[in-house]
Structure formats: C-alpha cells, structure tokens
C-alpha cells in the first residue's frame, strides 16, 4: 500500500498476495485483518479485501480529530519528556530527515510514525496514543508520493526537530503552534495526493 501498488477500490485475495510475496497465507491473512481494523481495507465476501478509498470529507474529519487529540497529547507528552527521551527522539528525527533526503517514502513513514507515537507514549495515556495511531494509519499514504517527487519531504522532516527544541526549552505555546502547523501541513499533503 505504501508503494502505491495496491490501489483504492481494487480487490486482493490473501492467497494471491501470499503468492506474490512468496510467503504462506496465514501471516498475510493476519496482516489483512489488521488493515481492516485500521480502516484501510474492507472485506468483500468470497472475493478478498478491497482497498478503501478515503474521501475529502474523511480526510477533513480525521484532520479535525487529530487536531483535537494530538495537540494536547503532545503537550502532555512534552511536559513528561526527560533529556534521555529527547535524545532518543532526536535520533528518530534524524532518521526521518535521512529518509526524506533519500526520497525513501516507506522509511520516512516508518520513522515518522515511530517518532510521533514514541513522543505521544510519554503522555502515559495508551488509549489516547492508540486512538491517534489509528487516525494516522488511516491517512498515512496520502500525498507523500507527490511530496517525494517534488523534494518536499525534507520540509516536513525538519518540523520534528523544531518540536523537540520547543520541548527542550519548555516553550509550550511554541510547541502547540508547531504541532498545529505540522498537522496543517500534513492535511495539505493529503490534498496534494
């Protein structure tokens, strides 16, 4: 899905995907069910799984939910962050930047996901982190290919270190503004996709 080989509206069977990937059907079925639970696929009786097309309204609703949940969660997480946490998160920010420079969308997505979820986990609220993870997963594929083509992944990548600097300085107003701006940029990326 990240590479764009699986397209919205198309139907795929577990057996066909397993053959294509050279693995047994069991782990593929488990992965497909995980994607169903994340809202990325829907089961089609006796046929397989369809990649869900996300509408502009869906994207708007997800953006609004992320804004309502992710901003205060990030502020809470930032307040709980230790210097060691910031060093670890800085390593992830470096990985995001490296992937962006290489135009490696899959690696960018993975490092970006780890950065945000590791940061949010510092809030101590696992359910909130899980809810945000689900929202992120429903939209993570939108717009990134175009950003990579135009060399703009680096713009998004640099925002992570800015957030870490605000946390290190305990500048909560600045952090709030940066998280809101980051989410706004993400929503613009979805529109570009």
Report on this model:
By secondary structure, the protein is mainly alpha-helical. The protein has 2 domains: 41 residues, Arc Repressor Mutant, subunit A (Orthogonal Bundle), CATH 1.10.10; 137 residues, Up-down Bundle (Four Helix Bundle (Hemerythrin (Met), subunit A)). The protein has 9 helices and 3 strands. A 3-stranded antiparallel β-sheet has the order 1-3-2. Strand 2 and strand 3 form a beta hairpin. Helix 1 crosses helix 2 and helix 4 runs antiparallel to helix 8.
SSE layout and pairing:
Elements: E1 11-12, H1 14-21, H2 25-37, E2 41-44, E3 48-51, H3 56-80, H4 83-102, H5 105-121, H6 126-139, H7 144-149, H8 153-168, H9 172-192
Antiparallel strand pairs: 1-3, 2-3
Helix pairs in contact: 1-2, 3-6, 3-9, 4-5, 4-8, 5-6, 8-9
**Euclidean distance between termini CA atoms:** 14 Å
* Percent in helix: over 70%
Number of strands: 3
Look up the CATH topology of the largest domain.
Four Helix Bundle (Hemerythrin (Met), subunit A)
What form results from the Cα inertia axes? elongated
Question: What characterizes the major β-sheet?
Answer: 3 strands, antiparallel
Q: Strand share of the residues?
A: 5-15%
Q: Structural class, judged by helices and strands?
A: mainly alpha
Strand order of the largest sheet: 1-3-2
Assigned CATH architecture of the largest domain:
Up-down Bundle
Would you list the SSEs in sequence order as H and E?
EHHEEHHHHHHH
Number of structural domains: 2
CATH class of the largest domain: Mainly Alpha
Radius of gyration from CA coordinates: 18 Å
Domain HTH gntR-type: 1-54
Protein name: GntR family transcriptional regulator
Keywords: DNA-binding, Transcription, Transcription regulation
GO molecular function, one term: DNA binding
